[in-house]
Amino acid sequence: MVQDLLIAVIAAVAAGALYLAAAARVVRQYERGVVLRLGRLRDEVRPPGFTMVLPVVDRLRKVNMQIVTMPVPAQDGITRDNVTVRVDAVIYFKVVDPASAVVEVEDYRFAVSQMAQTSLRSIIGKSDLDDLLSNREKLNQGLELMIDSPAVGWGVQIDRVEIKDVSLPETMKRSMARQAEADRERRARVINADAELQASKKLAEAASEMSAQPAALQLRLLQTVVAVAAEKNSTLVLPFPVELLRFLERAQQGAPVAPAPEVAQTPDSGARAGPAGDSGAPAADGTRPSDSGTPDPRPAASSRPYAHH
Question: In whole angstroms, what is the distance from residue 70 CA to residue 3 CA?
């Protein structure tokens, strides 16, 4: 009798141990437990720690509450200004409602991934190339709103969406490089022109100051000679004052010009004698000047006609 009672107690303890082992569950700190009893959702979400469920009757689904980092595969698209690009992104999200993540969607990770890909393609088609390259913050916010709208019903919260890389065709890269080079060259020319303008203004002010004091020009000339000689050059450059050249030019323009001599004209020669510089016309004494200015030794022919007897 006692032996049968002992066997019954041992069997009960073993059954209880088996039941406890089948019903015992451990929920980790970053997880939440969702219980489905006979396929029906229980309102209570199991917190982290040790918990019990009814074997065979209850089914515990553990939902990860950590922030998930999911890369979005690169998507090919055409921007609004007809440029073919390839864009990839990364999305950060977490589950805020474990019950909705289990009941409302079959696989919330796959759903978020597909929604991110379609939203990324939509953003590419609505944006210009310049926005994709330089205005990514605005595009990230728009992409986050597009993904977060349907994800709220799944119990998922989108924390952040980032566009990682924008791949361009090689021809477009070369065109952008030429454009950037031309823009830098334009700015360099503008800066040089501005520097020349400022330098000309300063030089004009210096010229006006030196014109009031003529000795300042001579002092500046001496300073220039000293600066050139300090370099230990074998050739000494001595500037020539421009004012001296102007003085000589004014003096030359003010000198009187001597008139050219004129030759008297004989009444019976029948020809007009040219000026002294004309080598083709005969002189008054019948001689023709040569190139060296000496008279012609040949006798001059008489201008009178011979008398016929």
Answer: 63
pLDDT value of residue 89? 92
Residue 91: closest CA among 103, 78, 108, 79: 108
In which order are the strands placed within the sheet that holds 156-167?
68-78, 84-95, 156-167
CA distance 183 to 177: 10
R_g (Cα) of the chain, nearest Å: 54
Does residue 256 register a pLDDT over 80? no
Return the residue matching tokens 């219980």.
35
Q: CB within 8 A of 93, min separation 6: which ones?
A: 67, 68, 70, 112, 151, 156, 157, 158, 159
CA distances from 120 to 54, 82, 111, 263, 289 (A): 45, 17, 14, 104, 103
Tokens encoding 289: 């000047």
Phi, psi of 255 (to 5 degrees): -70, 140
Q: What span, in angstroms and rounded, lies between the C-alpha atoms of 70 and 93?
A: 8
- Give the pLDDT confidence of 204-229 residue by residue, as tens digits: 888 888 777 777 777 777 777 777 77
Distance between CA atoms of 85 and 128, rounded to whole angstroms? 11
Pairing of strands 84-95, 40-46: unpaired
Give the predicted TM-score (pTM) of the model: 0.56
Tell me how far apart the 2 most distant CA atoms of the chain are, in Å: 206
- Where is pLDDT greater, at 18 or 281? 18
